[in-house]
Write a structure and sequence with these properties.
Oligomer: single chain
Helix content: 40-55%
Domain CHHC U11-48K-type: 6-33, 40-67
Region (Disordered): 66-89, 103-124
Number of strands: 4
Structural class: mainly alpha
Pfam families: zf-U11-48K
InterPro entries: TRM13/UPF0224_CHHC_Znf_dom, UPF0224_FAM112_RNA_Proc, Znf_C2H2_sf
Keywords: Metal-binding, Zinc, Zinc-finger
Amino acid sequence: MEPEAFEICPYNPHHQIPHSRFQYHLALCRRKNPKKAKKMASCKYNACHVVPIKKLEEHEAACVNRSSVEEKDTLSPLKANLPSSEQNDDLLQTFLPKKLFCDSNTRESEREETSTQKTLRSGE
């Protein structure tokens, strides 16, 4: 088993963190060092790349992860085909939902229904 690689924290160079814990450490260190965090920015290609704002453009131009992100974007571009209004007038109706549904709310609504049913039964 190979020893794990260590990363150096951009907020405090004395922090050497195992690669597997680096994201968690960045979030904690960012909160603990708000003054330094205001001067830093995350790379848009890899959130673990935190650099001074002044060097962000330079970093993003040479970022190691840039090519892999750009390849994914070109392989599957987002396309939307909207019907023309002349062809399908009845398809372009306004959507009005009849009931909103959320898993977390159903449990609460079930509790409310059962509690109101209990009160109705006891009050009969």
